[in-house]
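Page 47, continued from p. 46.
Same chain as before, 677 aa.
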Amino acid sequence: MPSGASPTRNWSSSRSYSKMRLLLPSLCLLSSTFGTRAKVVVADGTKQVDDNRLQDNVAVAPGPLQPVSRGLRRGGNGGKLTPIKLDESNAQELVDSRTVLLKNQDTRFRLCQMLAQHTERWTWIVLREKAVYHTLNMFKADVSGMLRGEGWVISEKFDDVRMSVNRAHSEMDSNMPSHVDQVAKPWPTPPTHFTTNKFTYGYQEFVNTYGIPRYREANPALFTAATFPFLFGVMYGDIGHGLFLFCAGLYLLWNEEKNDKAKLDELTAGLHTGRYMMAMMGFFAVYAGLVYNDCFSLGLNLFGTRWSFGSDQPEEGDVAEMTGQYGDGDSVYPFGLDPMWHVASNELLFFNSFKMKLSVIFGIVQMFSGTCLKGINALYFGKRLDFLFEFLPMVAFASSLFVYMVVLIFMKWSINWNSRMLSATCLDPNDAGWGSPDYVGEWAECAGGGDGTCTPWGYVCQGNDSTADKCPLDYGGSGDGCQPPNLITLLINIALAPGVVDEPLYSGQASIQNFLLLVAGLSVPTLLCAKPYFLSKEMASHTHSAHDDDDDDEEHNFGEIIIHQAIETIEFVLGMVSNTASYLRLWALSLAHSELATVFWEKAMLSTLNMNWFATFIGYGVFAGTTFGVLLMMDVLECFLHALRLHWVEFQNKFFHADGIRFAPYSFKQLLTDASA
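Result:
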């Protein structure tokens, strides 16, 4: 635009709007203040009339009121004032004054009402005009009387911006042209912008609260949209409680359009923003509850249990047996855990083992995914040293110890331990247990001798045989592969007792674990030293004119690189250990939720069902109140915060720098929204 159209020259027009907005309410307030002081007392014979209607926001009459003393005269009895009757002219004057006051009040009210209809529009005009002038003041004078400004535009919207500028310039009576062109590279680091919708907006704000992603960096919100409600469901898993949360999310979705137009308070606005997130959290809580087979701490026999105690009235200490053969489809509950575990005496032991392993698996998979995203970022930005000497050593370290742990968990789950332990068990050939289908393999004939017993594969027992002697697998160690190992002890011994596997899962396990330990040991010094070394070689290859100053700068920069890389190495190596333990909160909070639900049910409901109807009524009230206050309110917030921490700390710190700049487009809508907030 021409430089003669300086944005500061027409500033008085926007000021006039501001003045008009402030001046008109002041006049109304002033007239109302004067009106409240007008009061007329008329003496009619011996009765005084006090017209209170004259007190309601009346204005000052155009002429002065006659003093009341004109209607009084001093008598001869002690100087007392005696009322006299006003003549008709004075009475008419009062009536006319009152009429003028009422019309003045009505005119003033209609004037203020008319102005109030335009106040909001005028405010918007002033705000938009101020924003336009503020932006134009940041332009710089260029040649030929032009103003020049630089800014960022979304690539897909570049043509729209050019058309808008040309259309606006064509409406001006100016011969000077306008141009919208791309600035020649190199550019400074652009701001970050993500196009979101109603579903992804809440998750993007979660990530932005922690930090803005760098330009073109992998956006954690994409993965958070799936993993955040899922990890919440793992901690909060319960069919009944999750259904309440899911219905609350559906209610917010049902009233979406209504809440979009309403002016909400801070709490309600936050719930409205996270309406899709709340519905997803409730959905995954119901899903995890189906996996745990847990509904208000009670198991649901939806598909029929696959275990049987052998009698309709089992006693304490009875052992349940599977209704089908191990590995057969009929012996597997179709979805989730069998409800029989909820009445077993070893329920807590079983659920603890299951949920603990599940937490470790989810944690390692998510952290390893974050590490892979670091490598993808390095490839995209062309950072060869970061990919070769940071990403690859990190993957080697994580895979050799932690991914290997996940592999061992699945191997232990998939092995038929009934068959393996039975293969190392001495049995009497004449006993009913001989020939049991639990043993996978052919039963050999017992040659006799020894103590008269044999193993299923034909080993003659002597009475003092060890498990390693009786096991046919020959994997080494005391168990020789026929005993299920303690995985925690197994993983600790990888570092503390290399080459020693007391209870192996597979053949050659000791050698493989020694190799993995060697890989993990070599990856740490590579991660610490390789990148600084090659960076120093690159710095030394550059020639400088001023040797002294450049040598000092080079030593300073190299020292910073060493310190930064040492921090990076320590944070990753120790972080993999601590973060894996941190994911055990999935197990801990799930256990706490189920145990609290069990306590509330047993103490508030079961203890009162056998009393009377009134006690049951009171017990139900206590159960409903504690369930709502503790499990549906406090525990939801607790699981929400823990899931948020797992994403911010354990997941995002593997690849997320969070030092980007948020793109702030020129938007009248955002300007008016901020002004009305």
